[in-house]
Known about the structure:
single chain; 152 residues; Thiol Ester Dehydrase, Chain A; two-stranded antiparallel sheet; globular; ApeP-like_dehydratase; HotDog_dom_sf; ABC transporter permease
Amino acid sequence: MKDTGISDIDISNFLPHRKPMLMVDSVVEIDDDSVATKFYIAEDGVFIKNGTLSETGLIENAAQAASGVVGQTFFEKDDLKGTGNKLVGYISAVKKVEILQLPKVGETIITKAKLLSRFDTGEMTMCSLDTETYIDEKLIVSSTMNFLIHEV
């Protein structure tokens, strides 16, 4: 990822999700083709099972992180509060998911997404992204997903 000078963005300004469904705390880095986000695994999280974040929670985290890559293009560059637009995004396909480890309560995960392809119809954007989720430097999840994103 290239350094854009944009970091630690409050993702709740750009996603419709709210706790307990908000699975990303902040954007660490973002550029035209990629994003890195962080998420602290809290004990009271909706997808906590036996002291770990479940598979469903990891997929939702990856989807929310990945949506930032294309979603950012619907906002002005200096709109760090997300006031300029309202978007809705859908996972249209989960093409691949490999879960190597479930993160524990109290850990922070970093999820990175990279744009593979994008097609804009004028009303909707269809895209495909690869994601990787880490605890420290250790890869715990990788996935490939397709999304549909449009303004409301």
